[in-house]
Amino acid sequence: MTSVDFLPEGRDNILYRELDDGCIVYDAESNQGHILNITAAYIWNCCDGHHSIESIARDLQGLFSLNFEEALKHVESTIAQFQESRLLSNLTARPSNRT
Known about the structure:
- There is one protein chain.
- The chain is α+β, with helices and mostly antiparallel strands.
- It contains three helices and five strands, in the order ββββαααβ.
- It has one domain (6-87): Alpha-Beta Complex (Outer Surface Protein A, domain 3).
- 37% of the residues lie in helices and 29% in strands.
- Strands 2-3-4 form a three-stranded antiparallel sheet. Strands 1-5 form a two-stranded antiparallel sheet.
- The protein is globular and about 35 Å long.
């Protein structure tokens, strides 16, 4: 499970093409394309190094009328797939105000 405080960031050399019902991301380095559904495409667009896993899940919760736990599971699963496919440059911890 990925910490909700991490800030996923897509690699700079990934090509992106938006579709009506999602998107295609293409990794020229591995010569592999990935077709993402609308939910995964939304998550991909949030992987900019500025959105935490938690904030992406909260946005997804509102956009798709999910409860937070469901949304968080979707985000964590999708981020794990992005990592496995080597589409992310890193996961950067953000300073936390939690005690």
